[in-house]
From TrEMBL:
Keywords, ordered alphabetically: Antibiotic resistance, Cell membrane, Membrane, Transmembrane, Transmembrane helix, Transport
Keyword Lyase in record: no
Protein origin, superkingdom: Bacteria
Membrane topology: Multi-pass membrane protein
UniProt record, GO biological process: response to antibiotic
A GO molecular function held by the record: ABC-type transporter activity
Protein name: Transport permease protein
Similarity comment: family membership: Belongs to the ABC-2 integral membrane protein family.
Amino acid sequence: MKKILAVETKLLLRDWPAIVFSLALPVGLLVVLGQIPDLSKPDPEFGGQRFVDSQLPAQMILLALLTTSFTVLPGVLAAYREQGVLRRMSTTPVHPSRLLGAHLLINLGVAVVAVVLVILAGWLVHGSTPPEQIFGFALVCLLGTAAMLAIGLVIASVAPNAKSAPGIGSVVMFPLMFVAGMWIPREIMPDALRMVSDYSVVGPFINAMRDTWAGDWPQLPHLAVMLVGLALFGGLAVRLFKWE
């Protein structure tokens, strides 16, 4: 497993423009959107906090994780399949679960960097406070990121080539952004749509992250949905994986 991680990390770093984009996009949006005057004013709906204090950083963290999970990760594995790398690996004792697990861990590391950069940018540029419940926040980020990456692995397992993988990822990503409340606040969603959000991976993730930002421990149902999502999509990715 260590050798796989080392080799795959080196190969992933060759695709550094995609990694830089997934890191720079949410940070850049955080800095730019935070300049809007209305977002820097205390809002009663957020308990007197400003939108830039926790709401905007939470959304940008979600954007970073979705971009990594649904564009960077599937694109790399689909390129391997298209270039015949996976076909050559199929002749070795490497099991699909090890390969997919290695990519999950590597991209989890990229996601951690993205989360740290967003929090630092919010603090340095807008004076946003870091999450108060830091241990709960770390748990939510690790579990939610792993679940989103597992969905990305499903896409990577079935995408026929490198060009189609990001397209498939985008088709999945934008509806998830919608139900997570990126464009319409969850509080004003119709009941049916809010229920869909509650049972998606991203809805519980964004809610649990906001709870920890306010100093509360994440709710058990939110953690359970993310854990089930990780197990379900992780197992599905291994089952659907094709070497060529």
